[in-house]
Amino acid sequence: MRFYLAVILAISFLENFKVHIVRGTLGTQAMAHNSCVSLRTEKISIRRIANYEIQNHPQKVVILITRNGIKICVPHNLPWVNQTINTLDKRKNKRKTEKS
C-alpha cells in the first residue's frame, strides 16, 4: 500500500514539475522558423514558384516557395510579386475546381 502511495505521489510531483518546465520562464520566447533576414527584389520566374506565404512580423513580406522547396523573401509591395500571388491563387482555384 505504501509503495502505491509513493508511486502516485511521485507521478503527481513529476507531472507538476513537467508543466512548470514546459511553461518556461518569463524571459523565454520562441523564434519564428520563417524569419526573413534579407529581401530579394529582382523578378523570379513564375515557373519556378510553387507556393507562397505572407509574413507580417517583423515586417510585411512575401515568402515565395520554389518547386525545390527553397524559400525566397521578397517585398510585398512590388507589382510582379502581386502578379505572382494572383497567378498562384488562380492555379490553386483551378486545381480545386478540377478535383470537384
Account of the protein in words:
The chain is α+β, with helices and mostly antiparallel strands and 100 residues long. The chain is 43% helix and 18% strand. The chain is built from 2 helices and 3 strands, in the order H-E-E-E-H. A hairpin with a 4-residue loop joins strand 2 (61-66) and strand 3 (71-75).
Classify the secondary structure makeup into a structural class.
alpha+beta
Number of strands: 3
Strand content: 15-25%
What is the terminal separation in angstroms? 62 Å
What is the tally of helical segments?
2
Which labels suit this protein?
single chain, about 100 residues, alpha+beta, 3-stranded antiparallel β-sheet, 3 strands, about 20% strand, Chemokine_XCL1/XCL2, Chemokine_IL8-like_dom
Quick overview of this protein structure:
By secondary structure, the protein is α+β, with helices and mostly antiparallel strands.
Indicate the topology.
Layout: H1 2-23, E1 49-55, E2 61-66, E3 71-75, H2 79-99
